[in-house]
């Protein structure tokens, strides 16, 4: 088998992250150095300061404009997440995003015994409120013994009657 030359390795390094921005590649290449200086941590340099430093290193956004602190934060977080996933895959042999397309042949879900029903407490029927022979909003008799008409009962009297019925039924 032929040995891979340094030139081929450099080409693979440059083209291995196809579809990634130059900023992503730069941060990924220098991630260990940035983490050593506590970049991305609460007591490290601010994202704005990191964006300034990256601009001094010749990094720009896709339109050639200076980097925003938010773009730097997002790319740095993405690089960090990707490197952690690769490390996990290297150590445990399974990528974080890898999920089986289907269950293995013959696999059956585990049988779970049903939970016992919670004991029920005996209940007593709620006593019904005593019913009256009159409708709840029946007009009260006037002083001469006849029932009042709509013209003789004010809205305030109707509301007072309603509140009295509610108070009686609620036990207040």
Catalogue the unreliable spans: none
Number of β-strand runs:
0
Secondary-structure element sequence? Answer: HHHHHH
Number of domains: 2
Helix and strand content put the structural class at: mainly alpha
User: Which whole number gives the mean pLDDT?
Assistant: 78
- The helicity comes to 40-55%
Care to describe what's here?
Helices cover 43% and strands 0% of the residues. The protein is mainly alpha-helical and 172 residues long. It folds into two domains: 6-92; 133-172, no CATH class. The longest helix is centred in the middle third of the chain and has 24 residues, at 69-92.
How is the topology of this model organized?
Layout: H1 6-15, H2 22-29, H3 31-36, H4 47-56, H5 69-92, H6 155-170
Helix pairs in contact: 2-5, 4-5
Task: Provide keyphrases for this structure.
single chain, 172 residues, mainly alpha, 2 domains, 43% helix, 0% strand
How would you sum up this structure in a few lines?
Helices cover 43% and strands 0% of the residues. It has 2 domains: 87 residues; 40 residues, no CATH class. The chain has 172 residues and is an all-alpha fold.
């Amino acid at each position: 088998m032929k040995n891979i030359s340094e030139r081929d390795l450099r080409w693979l390094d440059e083209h291995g992250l196809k579809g990634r921005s130059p900023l992503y590649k730069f941060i990924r290449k220098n991630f260990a150095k940035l983490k050593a200086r506590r970049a991305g941590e609460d007591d490290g340099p601010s994202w704005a300061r990191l964006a300034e430093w990256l601009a001094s290193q010749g990094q720009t956004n896709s339109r050639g404009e200076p980097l925003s602190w938010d773009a730097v934060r997002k790319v740095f977080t993405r690089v960090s997440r990707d490197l952690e996933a690769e490390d996990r895959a290297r150590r445990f042999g399974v990528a974080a995003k890898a999920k089986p397309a289907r269950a293995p042949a013959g696999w059956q879900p585990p049988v779970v015994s049903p939970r016992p029903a919670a004991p029920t407490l005996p209940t007593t029927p709620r006593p019904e409120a005593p019913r009256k022979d009159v409708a709840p909003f029946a007009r009260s008799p006037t002083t001469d013994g006849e029932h009042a008409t709509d013209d003789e009962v004010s809205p305030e009297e109707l509301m007072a009657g309603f509140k009295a019925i509610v108070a009686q039924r609620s036990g207040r």
